[in-house]
Amino acid sequence: MSTTYETRYASSPHETKQMDTEALRKNFLIERLFEIDKISLVYTHYDRYIAGGVLPKSKSLSLATIDALKAPYFLERRELGIINIGGPGVVTVNGEAYALGFKEALYVGKGNEQVTFASNEPQNPAKFYLNSAPAHHTYPTKKVTKAEAEVVELGSLETANHRVINKLLVAGVVETCQLQMGMTELKTGSVWNTMPAHTHDRRMEVYCYFEVPEGQSVCHFMGQPQETRHIWMQNEQAVISPPWSIHAGAATANYTFIWGMAGENMDYGDMDACAITELK
To answer: What is the 8-class DSSP label of residue 36?
Structure first.
């Protein structure tokens, strides 16, 4: 089969603070997003979110339903966000082809029965990063480039967090039910993301780190503000962030990450800030 998936169950703050390194990684880290000619998915019980990757090299791949959905096709009751972090490729939705270049996004609405992925150049295959959430309404499929994103520049080199936030699949750019996705690019010399840290109890989040230079790593911080934990991550890996958890990171070089989130609130600014000096 070209589609594989695993299920991750939700953990409370009490359970999580008892976890050792192995348990934290098993519950929250997604180590293998991209496997050649496969669709790899993780179904999490935090807001029924799905994150995964597609790497079509020698053939096109179709997004098939999985047993956990109990649905005749994947998007019967779900919406889908896609960001390409590899070579040029094509996503075909119910017969309509959408060319996706590097760092370009596509929103696919509920009710689309057929979604396929292909690479233009097998020697430089596309890497389609996927996020999906339950949907109650059908919105049109729409491609979004970086030029069409809502862009915000934050931080400074002095605090090692000078970064550009590209809001790709958010209200004001594309209509969605609850899924939101974007991409944050750190400037040379900056390594901290989402600092000062925050939580948002009404939605969960998944981070996908990429453009991490060879031989470098990212340290992702999670947990309640006064009970933090860390997970060391490598290039093209993702991490699940529960609603009660901070989600911040620092690396040994600058990098890029994709954030995706879903829940009952669509207000990007809905968050509870945590003072840096109060983190423990």
So the answer is: B
Task: From 80, 83, 64, select the one nearest 72 (Cα to Cα).
Answer: 64
Question: What's the average model confidence in pLDDT over 89-102?
Answer: 98
Backbone dihedral angles phi then psi of residue 21, each to the nearest 5 degrees = -55, -45
How is 140-185 classified by DSSP, letter by letter? --EEE-GGGSEEEEE--TTTT--EEEEEEESTTTS--SS-EEEEEE
One-letter amino acid for residue 66 of the chain:
I
Q: Was 205 annotated as part of a binding site?
A: yes
d(CA 79, CA 108): 6
Show the 3-state SS of 4-35.
EEEEECCCCHHHHCCCCHHHHHHHHEECCCCC
- Tell me: is residue 247 an annotated ligand-binding position: yes
Distance CA 1, CA 93 (A): 21
Phi then psi dihedrals of residue 184, to 5 deg: -115, 125
Report whether pLDDT(71) > 90.
yes
| 198 is known to lie in a ligand binding site | yes
> Cis omega before residue 196 (within 30°)?
yes
> Is there a binding annotation on residue 136?
no
- If you classify domain 3-278 with CATH, what class do you get? mainly beta
Contact 204, 242 (CB under 8 A): yes
pLDDT digits (tens, 9 = 90+) for 240-263: 999 999 999 999 999 999 999 999
pLDDT of residue 1: 65
C-alpha pair distances (Å), 140 with each of 109, 143, 164, 172, 259: 6, 10, 27, 14, 22
pLDDT above 80 for 269: no
